[in-house]
Amino acid sequence: MLVACSRMYDVNAAAQEAWWTLFSIIADKSGVELRPLSHNGSLEELWRRNDLGCTFMCGFPWVATGRQHPAIAAPVPLDARSEGRPHYVSDYVAVDASPIGSMAQASGCTIGWSVQHSQSGYQAPRHHLMDLERDRGRPLFARSVGPLHTPNGCLEALDQGVADVVPIDSLYFRVGQLTDPDRFARYRSIGHTPPRPMPLFVASPNIPTSKVRALGQAVCALHNEKAAADTLALLGIKRFVLVDPESYDIIREEAAECDASGVGAPI
């Protein structure tokens, strides 16, 4: 039996339960047996498994490793900034009580980051901030702290005053707002990066093409399933679509541009 894992968007127990509801529908409609997996280890460890059937993978490591994992589908968020595409942004998040109300007001502050293999928590903000530095003639932030490892770790850094601003995957942030509004009312977005291709559901490289195709068809039909409607809404998702692999090239190209320019952590 293959495993299905929503580790990247398991914001809390309610979110995980919602994802597992979708996995049950996907398994039923695809004819591919899936066992929901609660993974507490690193994402790198998760992605090395050889029994992945429907598991979220960040776009940067996916494209950086040559798209070895077969793509199943990617979500189209309800967020208007996605423009109806399987795209997301990194929200620059501050605590709601902070005097920082815009990116300009964050000048001289401390930004946190998650891990280097994260598109939303590292690669996207460092490229965006590199462009801002070119326009301003100097870095926006005075200091950068990390790795903070996970989106939750980034939010905890805000709570503890370790960082003034952190980049958070916009879908993760929205799922948090929908499933735990009291906690997420403590935070607000002061800006965001340009939209880029979403994390996607993948399978392990050894999984038969027939199963990958069946899973993709079932995932992309979720928005037509009445049983999935409320769950998709709770997760901030309009629908899922098949992946255009070449659309992810911009992620690799922007990371390479940062590397060539000597840009390190977001600042």
From TrEMBL:
Pfam families: Phosphonate-bd. It comes from Spiribacter salinus. The lineage of its organism: Bacteria, Pseudomonadati, Pseudomonadota, Gammaproteobacteria, Chromatiales. This is PhnD/SsuA/transferrin family substrate-binding protein. Gene3D superfamilies: Periplasmic binding protein-like II.
